[in-house]
Amino acid sequence: MKNILITGGAGYIGSHICIKLRENGYQPVVFDNLSNGHRDAVASDIAFIEADIRDRAALNKAFTDFKPVAVIHMAALIEAGTSMVAPADFYAVNTAGALNLLEAMRQNGCKHIVFSSTAAVYGNRDTGLLSETLDIRAENPYGRSKAMVETMLADFASIYGFHAIALRYFNAAGADPMGRTGERHNPETHLIPLVLQTAAGQRDHIKVYGTDYDTPDGTCIRDYIHVDDLADAHLKALGFILSSETPALEIVNIGTGEGCSVKDIIVLCKEVTGRDFAVIDDARRPGDPAKLVANPAKANALLDWQPQYPSPRQIIEHAWKYYQSTLKNTR
Ligand SMILES: NC(=O)c1ccc[n+]([C@@H]2O[C@H](COP(=O)([O-])OP(=O)(O)OC[C@H]3O[C@@H](n4cnc5c(N)ncnc54)[C@H](O)[C@@H]3O)[C@@H](O)[C@H]2O)c1
Known about the structure:
Layout: E1 2-7, H1 12-23, E2 26-32, E3 47-50, H2 56-66, E4 70-73, H3 80-83, H4 87-107, E5 112-118, H5 141-160, E6 163-169, E7 171-173, H6 191-199, E8 205-209, E9 221-222, E10 224-226, H7 227-243, E11 248-254, E12 260-261, H8 262-273, E13 278-282, E14 291-292, H9 297-303, H10 312-330
Parallel strand pairs: 1-2, 1-4, 2-3, 4-5, 5-6, 6-11, 7-10, 8-13, 9-14
Antiparallel strand pairs: 9-12
Helix pairs in contact: 1-7, 2-4, 4-5, 6-8, 6-10, 8-10
This protein binds nicotinamide-adenine-dinucleotide (NAD).
């Protein structure tokens, strides 16, 4: 079986990808420092290396011990808001950490990589759907720390012969449809889990940051992509790079092409949970673009990928089911 090194595999998205990899004949090897992930999010019979991507010796040992045919690189600091006050941490982990990983790959003869990039590289635009051909206009250090990795990957592809794909995810949401894993960030900053925590009575209210954006209801619009569809996109991306003959970097949006506002999400959460709760309007947060919605045409054409769960209601239903199961487990 082919080993795949998955950095950040104990995190929200990574734990879903581990499940998909195994279901499709790959053997995941998780490399995660558990700074934000959970050991129990990864099945106990999956190889687990608790280490930091900035630790070259630990990376070298992982390549020597497991000889992965490819890397899925997800380990990163993910909070755009925090990056506005602590940018150095983001460049150290997300950018320098990625360079350390790429160098370890080069040293160990592994040249296939799927990289977790982000829609945050686009920033604020007047255009409709965002296509990969647009220039980089990240509004925060988080987005810039990821864009720099894309630049490095392009050079590693053209000069060192890497086969790379950067997936620019839009807003990952939902949970495994079978309830095996889901979103457990701590602290949580993502909208859907925050609203569901409020519906469950774990928070007094939900804040809406900015109601004066140039959008139909004044709140920010995002493209919510089911985490199971995201995991599926990684499988397709892996298949693509492993069968590609020519070294290259491909950059591919992973989103549905449909936007949903903050207010839309709150209404849907109230409907799905059947609960009412307080909603408080607040000021805009720095670094939040008004609208981020993918043009998913390249993912459809290049990877033959289509979302199976495009409905925000179904995304929320799966997230709610998983969240309720975590509440039961902690009682
Ligand atoms: N969640 C989203 O909506 C979203 C959107 C766009 C891009 N992304 C990207 O997807 C990836 C995964 O996101 P997520 O939501 O699953 O986040 P997450 O925080 O749940 O997972 C990240 C994992 O990386 C690990 N990690 C962090 N720093 C590390 C280090 N220095 N060494 C080793 N491991 C380290 C954490 O312990 C965690 O398990 C990230 O790269 C993120 O930037 C996420």
